[in-house]
Design a protein that fits this description.
457 residues; alpha+beta; Rossmann fold; Jelly Rolls; 26 strands
Amino acid sequence: MKKILTMTLALCSVLLLHAAKVSKMVNVKVGSETRKYLLYVPNNVKENAPLVVSLHGAGGTVSTSSHDPDFHSIADKDGFIVVYPQGKNTVFPGLGGMSAPGWTSTGEENFDTDFLKAVVEDVASKYTIDRNRLYCCGFSNGGMMTYVMANTCSLQFAAFAAISGYPINEFHLHHTSARPVPFLHIHGKADDFVKYSLVPNVIDNMVARNGANPVPQKTVKSGKYTKSVYEAGEGSFPIIFYEIDGMGHSPFTNSTEANSSSQTMWNFFKEYTLDSPCDQTLRWRPRIEEEGYAPKSHGWTMNSGTTLLRFGGTQNTNSNQNVYRSLQFQTGSYKLCFKSTGEPSTAIGVKIEKLTGKKNAVLDATVNVGEEVSLPFEVADGWGEYKITFTRPTKDDVITVTDIAIYAVVDTPDAVMAPKASAATDGAVYSLSGVKHTKTPVGKGVYIANGKKVVVR
């Protein structure tokens, strides 16, 4: 009897050890509405815990027994908090007008972005969370909403991940975030609902927006996955894309290195904080000159008559479901920079034209080959999509344009830093791509130390 009692107590101790400290539905007031989310706090929650926001797909109903993508067991192991917000009834015109619980993934601030920020504040009012380690992910329509959060809340969330979801149809991808963002995307090759075939357009947009290397480092595991790592460039973050063999439209796969898509997301998340330095002024850097890159396969027109280069122009069609490569800006001041080689003093025409709304040119200039170029322009009428064109005097002029980049013009000259003022104040030295240097002194270059840009000559 005593032995049985001892075993029972031991079993109870194990169960208590692994039991959740909190697993319950919580109401939160957002404006005039009351909305709800599932709060999961593991028994071993850490002080200053990271927070993961996990978003369900269209038609999803969140409960203590139903929540995707699921992070419960990973939170139990690593001591972070997870929230699973409940979407509200949303009409999806692209799905025949279906109404179901989901997310209005318009690309801009709306009642759903307000709700998700309110959820974070509600959790923060009850627990000590690490504001530098907020992460957002989602499945299907929740993945679409994750792209929205990456666009609108990049100064609040450190990193993002989507599985089987990106903005389609009435939900069009906006990629005009306040800073480059680390992003991971997982998609099944057999997904014909949120089509796998269109994902490369999304990846191209995110890679150029981040200024990452457009020629990925690939790892292929036959029968499981192809992993493409678009490595971070100066002042930016990587984009990572998993193509899963045999996977359809699903919130989970075990065909990653970690044998779990949720674990893969968490492994990615924990590499980044809001203290990871980046160039907040960077808006677009396509890096078309990279060895092995084929610009024509990624939406560029090259050396066609007097047109040297052109990007932008394709818009929404039935076949592309409103998913295409595009150049985008919000209201603000910008500058276009690039280099060129060819016959000295040959003229290069440069034009940036708006394709949506008022279709006007925001930049129309002429420069000479070999000049150091920094051309200012203004966008005054909100979000829009644009076309950029480089021209030459005749089709026989041989000119090469490289290092194209567009930056926001800001009041503070040293905007190359992490999003928070507390960034990198631990005495460590970081590269502009956010890599911490473990050896000192560092070599020549530009670095971040104590939240400021430092040039070592």
